[in-house]
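In the current project phase, the collection of sequences with tokenised folds has grown. One resulting record follows, to show the layout:
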Amino acid sequence: MARRLSGNLTSDWLAAADRMKPKNAKRRIVVYVEGYDDILFWHTLLSNIETDDRYFEVMLPSRTSLGKGKKVALMNALNEGLGRNLIVCVDADYDYLLQGATDVSRIICNNPYVFHTIAYAIENYQCYAPSLHTVCVMATLNDRIAFDFESFMAEYSKILFPLLIWSVWCYRYERYDKFNLHDMGQLIHLEEIRTGNPDRMLYGLRRKVNQKISWLQRNLPEAHKHLKVVEEDVRRLGVTPETTYLFVRGHDIFENVVLPLVERVCRELTNEREREIMRLALHETQKKNELLSYEHASASALEMLRKQSNYMYCPLYRKIIEQIKAKIS
């Protein structure tokens, strides 16, 4: 009987089960997430609001299948009954910016027990600009600042901001046949990585974005009367010209912008450290031993970018914590 009941969790069932525990037992809050990669992110975030009388258990949405994804998490949770003891945590994707324009967006924006990343996805947090120098230190064990990630990502974002407004308009008004997320992903990648000449990288991006906006203006003239309203709404939701990169499709930013930049900077810092070892080594044996030791101690940029957690200082991350705390207390 217990097995059958636990296979049909509801917030009320969890609350009733907690009442049957000893008075000093912690209250259990079940959290459904989209997939394996989400478990650590949400576990770490929710640990900030665990107390002496409550804890969170983060799990996949189905105990009877391998089904994963946002829709599976939402539908299973809605069917089972959300509440203070059963919540869902998912990527915001564009559903947050769409503000109820689709069925999923309405659930994301309106259900008090469905929480989301605010930023497009977890990958966007891994790309949080103020954390990227630390990622390079983690990978190379070299603390020299070789590239100004914060300044670059702010300028990069300013260029993208008007394009994001167009993209949100296209999805709110169902004109994504003219401009969709795939199209945007093709535009926003960096054509060449030149850490020594960031203006050159931004020049190519600006040219592509301006060309696309001109095309959109010619082919979607009806958008003109709505764009200012969309921009004001997007700003109200927390998007700024300097943080646009947090709200575009996560894997596009991660794979085609931030990872190549971080890898290039890490390569430069690694080469610098290896040259220093070769210069300071007293003899060949010491040089080989030091180079081998350094190789074992350092790590790949990709691995460190995935493992880093300094995005916890991002204001959006703190906002998620406050939203969940307010609802489940």
In short: The longest helix spans residues 250-280.
